[in-house]
Amino acid sequence: MSIAVEIAIEDLAGLEVAATAGADRVELCIELARGGITPPPELVEECTRRASVLVAARDAKPHFDVHVLIRSRAERGDFLDHPEEFLYSPDEVQLMARHARDSVSAGAAGVVIGALAESGELDVPAIETIRDGALTAGSVALRGITLTAHRAVDALPGRAQREHAVRTLLGLGFHRVLSSGGADHALDGAEDLAAMVDAAEGILDICAGGGVRPAHLVDLARRSGVSDVHLSARRRSGAQVEAGAPDTRTDPAIVAAAVDAAGGL
């Protein structure tokens, strides 16, 4: 069983920590404490260039790359019972399509996107518009783009809706879905995640994210069957920082512990 480790980061130092500790990829955003919003293209370009240097120097895994969260606003971190966090106006959808295009043009290997409709389902037209912004930029750059659906799926009403969302995203050409199984913590949503894995039929990856800790990883993977895990690996507020440690909230020890746990599966 092979488990990929994705680390959510906010800065260049966080990318370096994740890469050198053995993570498979990073999800880049800003305002992570509020759930994350799209980073500026200048930061995307800086991070993708540094990732390439680390890979070339063999200081990162050969496939290590940068995926960018595309989200125009994050008004609250506890969005599970607040699907309105992912209901977007036409102007917001167009803005995120531009963000997706700009992020790919700046070197992102993939984008992490999503939108909900008032009906309690995925907003397929909005998702297609944002997706196409990324794919157009990828076409110009003559390279493929990885499409990940973000945790908007966790604000759907229940397991059946999340399973249906996975099947819909398969048809939209997505490669991965990030989810906690609708729970505050992915370990508590393991059964729902397992249902999503079944719905994906081995074609689309389910990435477990939401309160994931290295100590949870083995149990989470075995109970859910997910192929990927996502964690922020943030240093606890007020925790002692070692002399010479990178100036970032991304904790090298937490990343390394997650990578070790994944490698033991």
Describe this structure as you would to a colleague:
The chain is α/β, with parallel strands linked by helices. It has a single domain, classed as Alpha-Beta Barrel (TIM Barrel). The chain contains 8 helices and 8 strands. The longest helix is centred in the middle third of the chain and has 17 residues.
What order do the helices and strands come in, and which of them pair?
Elements: E1 4-9, H1 12-20, E2 25-28, H2 41-56, E3 65-69, H3 90-105, E4 110-113, H4 124-140, E5 146-149, H5 159-171, E6 176-179, H6 190-200, E7 205-209, H7 217-224, E8 228-231, H8 252-263
TL;DR?
By secondary structure, the protein is of the alpha/beta class. Helices cover 38% and strands 14% of the residues. The protein has a single domain, classed as Copper homeostasis (CutC) domain (TIM Barrel, Alpha-Beta Barrel), CATH 3.20.20.
Spell out the key features of this protein.
265 residues; TIM Barrel; 8-stranded parallel beta barrel; 8 helices; 8 strands; 14% strand
Question: What is the name of the CATH class?
Answer: Alpha Beta
Return Rg in Å.
17 Å
Low-confidence stretches: none
Oligomer: single chain
SSE arrangement, N to C: EHEHEHEHEHEHEHEH
The assigned structural class equals alpha/beta
Q: What general form does the structure show?
A: globular
Proportion of residues in extended strands: 5-15%
| Biggest sheet overview | 8 strands, parallel, barrel
Q: What is the number of strand segments?
A: 8
Number of helices: 8
CATH-defined superfamily: Copper homeostasis (CutC) domain
CATH topology: TIM Barrel
Strand order of the largest sheet: 1-2-3-4-5-6-7-8
Q: What's the mean pLDDT score?
A: 93
Q: Estimate percent helicity.
A: 25-40%
The CATH architecture name reads Alpha-Beta Barrel
Distance between the termini: 6 Å
**How many structural units, i.e. domains?**
1
